[in-house]
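Hey, I was hoping to borrow your eyes for a little while. I'm sending you its amino acid sequence along with the backbone structure tokens. Take your time with it, there's no hurry, and the full record follows here.
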Amino acid sequence: MKMPGMLGMRKRGIAGMAINRGVRSGMASKIIGPWDWIIAPALISLALTIVLATAFQPFGFYLPEPVSPFILAFAWPLIRPSYIAPFVLGALGMFLDFFWGAPLGFWTLGLMLVYASLITARTFIIGQEWIVVFGIFLLAELAFFGLCILLTTIDTGFVPRIWGVVEQAFATMLLFPVVLYLLEKYVHTDVRFQ
């Protein structure tokens, strides 16, 4: 038998009125803004690019130089369609153009094509097992670096060193757990998009 004043899962406030701890009460803490899933990862990607491009050689080996904005170009369209993400991705591509001395628009074009193709196929990829997402990641990466080789060959008239491209693609592939982390953290977090 319940005593008067006991409401089970509901609790009484100071004035004796029931406090409703329903589903929507925690909504304000669950809203994810652009800073959380766009700006902060973009700044981390910039920092990673700069740190891995240093002239530090542990044990005589060069540090790998993955194309870290590719991770964001893959994850952002799967997380949520956005108007801000393509502009930030374009800025990251321009940064890579200036930082690595590529022709203007080289990295931007590749990143934007990855973003556009994944925003188109978003509904087919969301909800798949991680191994399927990894396979699509490898296909997107192969197309991305194939396009980069083609654009470099057209621009310079020479085919770039293929082993260097394979090393860079392998280093970028090692960042795939970051894609899984971003997807797990942000795909179903914001209650406005459920």
The first strand starts at residue 11 and ends at 12. The chain is about 60% helix and 0% strand. Residues 32-193 form one domain.
